[in-house]
Amino acid sequence: MKRKARSKVMTFKSIEDADIENIHAHQNGDCRVELSEMLGFDETWAPMSVSQIKEKLDEKRKEARSAIFGLMSEAGEFVGITSFTSRWDPWCPRFEIIIWPESRRNGFGGKTARIMLDKTFDDHVANATSISIPEWSNVARKFAKSVGLKECGRMRRAGFRNGAFYDLICYDMTKREYLAIRKEAR
Questions:
Q1: How far is CA 85 from CA 66, 77, 93, 126, 132, in A?
Q2: pTM of the model
Q3: Is 41 within the bounds of a domain?
Q4: Based on the structure, what is the number of domains in the chain?
Q5: Could you tell me if residue 4 is inside a domain?
Q6: What range defines the domain where residue 55 resides?
Q7: Are 115 and 7 in contact (CB under 8 A)?
Q8: Dihedrals φ, ψ of 6, to 5°?
Q9: pLDDT in 10s for each residue of the chain, 186 residues
């Protein structure tokens, strides 16, 4: 039985023009780096205009084997965005999740990650999935481990922040590991 991309905690929705102001507020504030990276805006330190965000969202939507969508709480609040891509390697797709800071610690990230893992392994040809997290993001690294991703490597000096280089820590999960976690959860 296939699971729907829906839970009693949150749902996925297409990002509409009415949502862009919310994304703009977060990119110009507390989620600048994360949103800039997700949208492919090279100057992650720089604020983006509403029209730049709209343009970058349109570019993302046109990428082959990729999707980007909003996350809605059960109460109808826009709590973040997520993206999925298998354009580089269909056997190892990647996904990203950004929960707005005011909505964190409510289970939205974990629920989204579990749904994305279900979609990756149940509805796709994936044999593995992987993510990269900046070494300075201890909360994101702890979160990755909490949903079953395992640290598998490091890209040294992959980014620059606050005048210093930082490493990206790589995490992955194989389909076999995913199936074992899902079986354990039943």
A1: 4, 25, 6, 11, 14
A2: 0.86
A3: yes
A4: 1
A5: no
A6: 10-185
A7: yes
A8: -155, 145
A9: 333 444 456 799 999 999 999 999 999 999 998 999 999 988 888 999 999 999 999 999 999 989 999 999 988 999 999 999 987 788 888 899 999 999 999 999 999 999 999 989 998 889 999 888 999 889 889 999 999 999 999 999 988 888 999 999 999 999 999 999 988 877
SS3 string, the chain, reads: CCCCCECCCEEEECCCHHHHHHHHHHHCCCCHHHHHHHHCCCCCCCCCCHHHHHHHHHHHHHCCCEEEEEEEECCCCEEEEEEEECCCCCCCCEEEEEECHHHCCCCHHHHHHHHHHHHHHHCCCCCEEEEEEECCCHHHHHHHHHCCCEEEEEEEEEEEECCEEEEEEEEEEEHHHHHHHHHHHC
138 within domain boundaries: yes
Whether 56 is covered by a domain: the verdict is yes
C-beta pairs of 74-78 under 8 Å, 24+ apart in sequence: 74/8, 74/9, 74/10, 74/11, 77/103, 78/19, 78/22
Sign, CA torsion 89/68/32/117: negative
Q: State the CATH number of the domain containing residue 23.
A: 3.40.630.30
